[in-house]
TrEMBL record:
Lineage of producing organism: Bacteria, Pseudomonadati, Bacteroidota, Chitinophagia, Chitinophagales
This protein's name: succinate dehydrogenase
Family statement drawn from the similarity comment of this UniProt entry: Belongs to the FAD-dependent oxidoreductase 2 family. FRD/SDH subfamily.
Pfam family, one: FAD_binding_2
Principal EC category: oxidoreductase
Keywords of this entry: Cell membrane, Electron transport, FAD, Flavoprotein, Membrane, Oxidoreductase, Transport
Domain annotation FAD-dependent oxidoreductase 2 FAD-binding: ranges: 35-461
GO molecular function annotations of the record: electron transfer activity; flavin adenine dinucleotide binding; succinate dehydrogenase (quinone) activity
Amino acid sequence: MLNAKIPAGPLNSKWEDYKGHCKLVNPANKRNLEIIVIGTGLAGASAAASLGELGYKVKAFCFQDSPRRAHSIAAQGGINAAKNYQNDGDSVYRLFYDTVKGGDYRAREANVHRLAEVSGNIIDQCVAQGVPFAREYGGLLSNRSFGGTQVQRTFYAAGQTGQQLLLGAYSALERQVALGNVTMYSRHEMLDIVKIDGKARGIIARNLITGQLERHFGHAVLICSGGYGNVFFLSTNAMGSNVTAAWKATKNGAYFANPCFTQIHPTCIPVSGDHQSKLTLMSESLRNDGRIWVPKKQNDTRKASDIPEEERDYYLERRYPAFGNLVPRDVASRAAKERCDAGYGVGTSKQAVFLDFAAAIERYGNIEANKRQMHGVSKEEIIKLGKEVVAEKYGNLFDMYAKITGENPYETPMRIYPAVHYTMGGLWVDYELQTTVPGLYSLGEANFSDHGANRLGASALMQGLADGYFVIPYTIGNYLADEIRVKAISLDHPAFADAESKVRDTIAKLMSIKGSKSVDHFHKKLGKIMWDKCGMARNEQGLKEAIEEIRALRAEFWKDVRIPGDENEFNPELEKAGRVADFLELGELMCQDALNRRESCGGHFREESQTDDGEAKRDDENFSYVAAWEYKGPSEYVLHKEDLVFEEVKPSQRSYK
C-alpha cells in the first residue's frame, strides 16, 4: 500500500503542524547541498528561485532558449485564491470544497486543503513582485468567476495572467542567477535520471545546440516539466510540451498516477483542417460574460444574427440553472459534444457552438451610461460603451480570436469547441511532493496531486506557485536534513556512465533506423487513436482496440521513422522523435488506466457508466483510489492503489443544477 505520509490531526491544522515539526537544514549546510530543477514554468521557476534564496546550490534546466518561454506563459484567465475580497461567502474551506467536488472526489483531501490555505499568500507574493493584477476603481484587486464555483475568487491580469505571473517568477529566478545561487541551463533537455543506492542523484541532459550529453549531480531532483496533453497531437499545449522528463522518472521507478485523467477545455477555437499543429485556447474567463448557445433547429445554416432569441437554446443555462455557463470544464465540454453530435452544431464543420457577448455588451453599456449619468442614450451609444468595457476586460482575447478566424467577436458570436488542455494525472507524489524514488520530487502539472479527475479553471497557476513558493521549501528540507553528510558524488561514478551510455544507445538507435516516415506522421496517427478512443468519451471496446493499435504503431515507429541530420548537432527532429517515442509508451498506459477504471468521473467518461440524463456516474465502492502504475517493461505495468479517505467532504453525486 502506498504511504502518502499525510500528517495526523485535524485537516485544517495538518500543514501548520507539519511545518512546526519537519526537519530543517541550517544555512551553512544548505550551501553544500545541490538541487536540480527540471523545467522553469511557474512551478520550476518559483521552486528554483525559492530554493536559491534559501541558500541551496540550484541548477535549473529548460529546453527553451529562456525560462520566459515556458508554457505557463499561455495561461490566460486567472489564478484562484481564497481572499474573499468580494465578501460573497468565500473562505479557505469553500475553495477546498469546490476543488475536491470539482475533481469529482478523486483528489487527496490533505493536499487540496493545503493548496487552499496557501492560496492567499501567493497573491501577496506576486503583488510584491509587481505582477499587474487587474484592480477595481478604488485600487483593490479585482476578482472574477470561473467554472465550478459560485463566488468570485479568480485574480487576473486581463487575458494574460500566466504571462504576468511567469514574469514575476522569472524575475525572482534571474535575481538568484545573478547572485550565483542558481545556474541556468537553457536549451538543455533531461533524458534520464541517475540513481545511486536507490536515490535520485543526478541527471543526463542533452545540450540541444551541440548535441553533447552532459552529466549533472544533485542531492535531489525536482521534475517541474508540465503535463502530457500533446500525446493527442492536437491540443492547446505549446508544441514543445512533452512527457519525457516524467516518463524517464517512471522508467526509473517513480509511479505514474491516474494517466487517464486528462482535461478537455470547452472554450477553444475549433479545428479548421488537417494543416493544424495545435489548437488555440480562449480563456474560460469568457464564460463569465459570454452566453453559450446553439440553434434549436437541427442543421441550421443561418447566421447567428439571423436566429431570433426564441429559437436559441442556451443549453448550459437550461440544464444547469444554478451554475449556468459557469459549470466545470468537464461538464461544459460533454454538453457541447452532446449538442453537436445531436446535429445542433454551428459553422461549416458543425463541430462548434456559439459563445455570445451581445447581452454582456449591452449590460455593460447600460452600467457605464449610468456611471456617467448619461440619460436618453441611443442603443448604438450603449453598444459602443459596452464594447469599450468588454475590450478593457477581454480585449487581447478578442483580438487573438479575430486574427485567427478573421471574424469580429464584438459583432458576431465566437465559435468554440472542446479541445485537449490539461492533464490531472502525473507522477505519484506523497504529501511532501516526493515520488516513490527517494530524492525525486515532482511539482505542478507534472504531478497528480491536487485536481482529482477534473481541474477547476484558474487552479493550475495556483498549484504551480503553491508547490514552488510555499510547499517544497519546507518538504525538501525534511529530506535533505539527512543528506548533509553526503558529499558531491563524482560524475565518473559508474551510475552516471551507465545512464549516459543508455541515453547514447537510444539516440544511436533512433538515428540508425533511416525509415521512410516523419516523426509527425507517427505523432498524428497516435493523436487520432487517442482522441477517437481515449478522448472525451471512452468505452471498453474502443480502449482495447486503441491499446493494440498503439502497440502496432510503436513497432512501426521503431522500424520506419526517418530522422534527418546528425545526433551531434542542433536537431529538432531528433528531439521530437525522443518525445514521440515516450508518448507512444504513455498512450498505451493511458488507455490501460482508462480501461481499468470502470466508472465515469470528471474528465474520464466511460460510456458504460452514466446516469439517465447523461452525467458522469462514479463508483465510489470500487474506484475511490489513486491508480499508481509501476513500469516493469514495455507494455508491462503493475497497479498500486492509494485509497482515498474523505473526512471533511463526503462524496456525493455532483450536481450543478
